[in-house]
Amino acid sequence: MSLPIPEVIGTIAELRDRLSLTTQNFAVAGADTRVVLVPTMGALHAGHLALARRARELGDTVVVSVFVNPLQFGAGEDLDQYPRTLDADVSALAELGVPYVFAPTAQEMYPDGAAETRVGAGPVGSLYEGAARPGHFDGMLTVVAKLINIVDPDAVVFGQKDAQQVHLIERMVAELNFRASVDVVPTVREEGGLALSSRNQYLDPVQRESARSLSAGLAAAASVASQGAPAALAAAHAVIDAQPLVKLDYLVVVHPQTFLPVDDDYRGPARMLVAALVGTTRLIDNVPLDIT
Question: Subunit details for this protein (predicted)?
């Protein structure tokens, strides 16, 4: 039996009404409901659907937001060209039993134009991805804060592939005392190890093969992490630098609590981050390291 098509809601007021009614219906039945939010920009792939599946495990009432947030696109970035596939997204979510898709317009989210009040990502927001995309994380945190305020979820779900984003969101939720918990889903990968991304569609077969060196390099780093951060970096470089089509942006080992680079003599848990251009396609990935 097919599951019902998710209700697509375009306004904040209507979404709040639906969630209020749902909560009341559960209460009448003598039960509580947990509301879980999955923020996305649409163009959903298997990685996004893994987030929605996890949300269904965490709560009865799942809201998947589909909103291409202009605040996190800088000058020269492809806001207008970003894929918008709402019908296909809704069909995919229907297979998972997601009841609500929140798909507001920019006018709905920012009725007075670009928001003057924004959440600042702080110093870490200007590193790594933030260095390549100035202001990106301020825009991302601002829209996530708005979505959490709109939905008031018990939990919000993100993917580990965007490790810096996850770090900043977890810090924002803690420091601003949001009641929602942050649930992080492991990175979903293609056969061969490449982390799933909507950008993978731009890779030709030769580039895709070269791009697999990113996950292979991270795996090599993890295998020698007990020898220290310099050894892990050297192992990753040996794999990735052998691919002429891969142009590294950064490869760094960071502390999981501060997200700042660790010293050469550091011992403890860490995370390796990588970003690179493969052709014209920018890809990111990461892996935990146990530097003991």
Answer: Homodimer.
